[in-house]
Design brief:
nine-stranded parallel beta sheet; alpha/beta; hydrolase; two-stranded antiparallel sheet; GH26 domain-containing protein
């Protein structure tokens, strides 16, 4: 009896010890933290930067294809802004397509404290040709200040200006969007330093009838105007540097996930708010370096569907569209993309506008790309080929956010030699003759400045 009790106690102690030992073991590594994880592969294709520069269209080719006159929403558009429009028009005619990536110069999925400032540059040696920015960075939602930067008195606008200017100096073209928080909530917050607190991000919060109240005459109109002042200040920083910006406000307005979207709102309020946005930036704040990009979400049943709530030719320069591959049948998606591109380009031609694929990418399993099991190693190349066939001069994939497993839309490197399973296919795309990244855009400012009609 005594032996039996002792033995039982010993077995119990051994079990407890084993459990404590298991508890003491480190947690299993996760691929988002572990560059040695087997989901990552050795890179076998290398980028050819010299070829990229050779393949870029020569200035003489661009001059021959570029328009001599433009009809922009801003009759006082800067020379650089008119040159950019002419350059993009020429690229479309020559069937080159610029690759773009949102937040390419200041957000990465991996190698956050090593490598370069960009997942694209880690793979190819160059930034994306179109670098996307969002006003969320101006409010600190997508841009953090270090302690040293705060101590030096730097603001988010100061930091974003530096990031944008450096990207431009590397050859990239800039585009800016606005993921605006719910302004009804903003209006209820205590004001700080005499201004509204625009921090935070509130997708899918459609409460408060914000679109109607933000339009001219509404009680939230001063709040919206204050938000535009923040955006105008940044655009004017770029203007002083001679940098034009593809400005994409109030995008995906036919969806049901933004307060300016079609769900429960009036089309007249949307067009009034868009027109006010252009008027205020252009005529009140003196912003003359913006090309205004209209960008609903595909698919579209008809041209009329695409142009639902269209604010008018006097307020738009670029006919864009956003379209994501939400299923596992890439060939079927590419057919739908082909249809949408043809429809948008037809509408752009009819209205004398420039077409663009303003957002495109894989959006599966509740997020973007998967860490493994992606079905098409050359997805980006295939999407770009659709754009090129329809003379669309640029496309942009969405951002890679730091080590968020379901929130990256482009491949990435995890070391100097290993990366995401789609890295080789992406570098193949970079090496294609008709793909353009920041290192292959050339000096488009050498084009003749077109005359504003």
């Amino acid at each position: 009896m005594i032996y039996s009790t002792f033995a039982g106690a010993m077995r119990t102690c051994a079990l407890i010890g084993a459990l404590l030992g298991l508890m003491a073991l480190p947690a299993a590594a996760h691929p988002v933290d572990d560059p040695a994880d087997p989901v990552y592969r050795a890179r076998t294709v290398l980028p050819d930067a010299a070829k990229a520069r050779r393949d870029a269209p020569a200035l003489d080719m661009l001059r021959a294809a570029a328009p001599r006159t433009v009809h922009l929403a801003d009759a006082a558009a800067t020379a650089e802004t008119r040159q950019l429009y002419a350059y993009l028009t020429a690229l479309g005619q020559l069937q080159y397509t610029i690759y773009g990536h949102q937040n390419d110069a200041h957000h990465k999925f991996f190698r956050i404290d090593s490598g370069t400032n960009s997942d694209t540059k880690d793979m190819t040696g160059a930034l994306a040709g179109i670098v996307g920015l969002d006003a969320l960075s101006l409010t600190g939602e997508e841009l953090e200040l270090t302690d040293a930067e705060r101590a030096a008195g730097m603001s988010c606008a100061d930091k974003l200006e530096r990031i944008a200017a450096e990207a431009s100096n590397e050859g990239a073209i800039l585009t800016l969007s606005m993921h605006i928080p719910n302004l009804a909530r903003v209006a209820k917050r205590p004001q700080a330093d005499g201004g509204y607190d625009f921090s935070g991000y509130s997708p899918d919060d459609l409460s408060g009838h914000v679109l109607h109240r933000a339009a001219p005459g509404g009680d939230l109109h001063p709040v919206y105007t204050a938000y535009l002042d923040m955006v105008a200040d940044f655009l004017l920083r770029m203007q002083r540097r001679g940098i034009p910006v593809l400005f994409r406000p109030l995008h995906e307005h036919n969806g049901d996930w933004f307060w300016w979207g079609a769900a429960g709102t009036d089309g007249a309020d949307y067009t009034a708010l868009w027109q006010y946005t252009v008027h205020y930036l252009r005529d009140v704040r003196g912003v003359h370096n913006a090309l205004y990009v209209y960008a609903p979400n595909a698919p579209f049943s008809s041209t009329e569907d695409y142009l639902d709530r269209y604010p008018g030719d006097a307020y738009v320069d670029v006919f864009g569209f956003d379209f994501y591959d939400d299923d596992d049948d890439t060939p079927a998606f590419l057919k739908r993309l082909e249809h949408a591109a043809a429809l948008v380009v037809s509408a752009a031609d009819a209205h004398g506008k420039l077409p663009a694929l303003t957002e495109v990418g894989v959006h599966k399993n509740g997020g973007g790309l998967a860490l493994t099991g992606n079905d098409d190693p050359h997805w980006t190349s295939a999407a770009a080929a659709v754009a090129r066939r329809h003379h669309i001069p640029y496309l942009m994939t969405w951002a890679n956010f730091e080590q968020e497993e379901k929130n990256f839309y482009q491949p990435f490197m995890v070391s100097d030699t290993r990366g995401h399973e789609l890295v080789d296919g992406f570098i193949d795309y970079y090496n294609e003759e008709t793909s353009l990244f920041a290192d292959g855009l050339g000096d488009w400012r050498g084009l003749p400045v077109p005359v504003q009609e």
